């Protein structure tokens, strides 16, 4: 690419100046053309390999955006419209702004020879903080104490400590490694699962297991954190059988993708007391249907896919994009290149 012209589909609040400065240093230009799909559509795409199966409408695109898009060979985005090859006839590279990309039709991009880079790592610290905020809320009975405050009840409720407990992290990529780092700060024993076992054990992992030994990790852990991308192998992975392998009274956490979990089986394990608690920042279909049994499942901590923190997210995404623009123009390998 001799000259980069980027369509910025990710809505910017404060980082425009960084891109303007980039124009002064490199053969680069950009258009601010915000495009965000609904939670329902994004969730639907995530269950269908990035394809819109027609249940949800895509946003209307202004004619001015269409004119600008037709000139662009780069896109930075959270969401990609279905007709991406038609709308961006010169497209050569897509920079995602999330670690996960199951909601993007990457097969279409790859088949067309379009490079794709993710934003793996930019939210890992924030998500790991969220995991421990929720985990401490449960083990220290913070929810119970808050309820007592509201009812003006003065009665001691003593919590448990994390020190000495075992946490099993299924997927020790960038997010899993940050979770492990914080677990060691609490003096926990940290186990990890890595599909590419041959890559070795990341820092802060006491014992690494191959994916084939998931059951062994489940049996040893007091807390399980699901932190892997969505794949065919992980779809419905946590079902009644896998939950039964977990220790009685253990805690299940999912900050990855809702498709990993059979939600009715999880609700049953909470109702029958096999699991002490579950912490979900993701569900299979988002937003969660009002009729879902998860709403009333006992000791379930539910949040609407918001474990990231947006105070630094935009700046981190733009900094990554700028670095990859520089690398592209200087012929270097891109950061987080998927293909």
Provide the fold topology.
Layout: E1 4-8, H1 16-25, E2 28-32, H2 39-46, H3 63-69, E3 74-77, H4 84-87, E4 93-96, H5 106-111, E5 115-117, H6 124-139, H7 142-150, E6 166-170, H8 174-185, E7 189-194, E8 207-210, H9 214-220, E9 223-226, H10 240-245, E10 250-254, H11 263-271, E11 275-280, E12 300-302, H12 310-329
Parallel strand pairs: 1-2, 1-3, 3-4, 4-5, 6-7, 6-9, 7-8, 9-10, 10-11, 11-12
Helix pairs in contact: 6-8
Can you characterise this structure?
The chain is an alpha/beta fold and 339 residues long. The protein folds into two domains: 4-120 and 310-329, Rossmann fold (3-Layer(aba) Sandwich); 124-302, Rossmann fold (3-Layer(aba) Sandwich), CATH 3.40.50.720. 34% of the residues lie in helices and 16% in strands. The chain has twelve helices and twelve strands. The protein has helices at residues 16-25, 39-46, 63-69, 84-87, 106-111, 124-139, 142-150, 174-185, 214-220, 240-245, 263-271, 310-329, and strands at residues 4-8, 28-32, 74-77, 93-96, 115-117, 166-170, 189-194, 207-210, 223-226, 250-254, 275-280, 300-302. The strands form two sheets. A seven-stranded parallel β-sheet has the order 8-7-6-9-10-11-12, with helices on both faces. It has a five-stranded parallel β-sheet with strand order 2-1-3-4-5. β4, α5 and β5 form a beta-alpha-beta unit. α6 (124-139) packs across α8 (174-185).
């Amino acid at each position: 690419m001799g000259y980069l012209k980027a369509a910025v589909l990710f809505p910017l609040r404060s980082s425009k100046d960084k891109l303007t400065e980039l124009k002064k240093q490199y053969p680069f230009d950009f258009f601010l053309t915000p495009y965000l799909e609904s939670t329902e559509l994004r969730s639907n795409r995530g269950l269908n390999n990035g394809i819109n199966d027609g249940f949800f409408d895509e946003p209307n695109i202004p004619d001015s955006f269409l004119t600008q898009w037709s000139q662009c060979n780069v896109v930075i985005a959270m969401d990609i419209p279905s007709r991406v090859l038609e709308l961006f006839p010169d497209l050569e590279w897509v920079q995602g702004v999330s670690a996960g990309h199951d909601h993007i039709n990457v097969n279409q991009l790859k088949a067309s020879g379009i490079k794709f880079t993710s934003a793996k790592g930019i939210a890992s610290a924030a998500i790991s903080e969220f995991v421990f905020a929720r985990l401490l809320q449960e083990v220290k009975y913070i929810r119970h104490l808050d309820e007592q405050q509201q009812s003006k009840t003065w009665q001691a409720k003593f919590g448990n400590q994390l020190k000495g407990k075992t946490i099993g992290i299924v997927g020790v990529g960038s997010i899993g490694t940050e979770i492990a780092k914080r677990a060691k700060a609490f003096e926990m024993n940290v186990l990890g699962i890595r599909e590419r076992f041959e890559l070795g054990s990341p820092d802060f992992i006491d014992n690494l297991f191959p994916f084939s030994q998931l059951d062994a990790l489940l049996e040893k852990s007091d807390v399980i954190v699901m932190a892997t991308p969505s794949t065919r192998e992980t779809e419905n992975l946590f079902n009644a059988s896998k939950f039964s392998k977990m220790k009685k009274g253990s805690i299940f956490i999912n900050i990855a993708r809702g498709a990993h979990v059979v939600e009715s089986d999880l609700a049953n394990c909470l109702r029958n007391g096999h699991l002490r608690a579950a912490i979900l920042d993701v569900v299979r279909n988002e937003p969660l249907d009002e009729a879902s049994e998860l709403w009333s499942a006992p000791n379930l901590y539910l949040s609407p896919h918001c474990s990231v923190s947006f105070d630094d997210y935009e700046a981190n995404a733009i900094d990554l994009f700028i670095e990859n623009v520089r690398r592209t123009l200087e012929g270097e390998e891109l950061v987080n290149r998927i293909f």
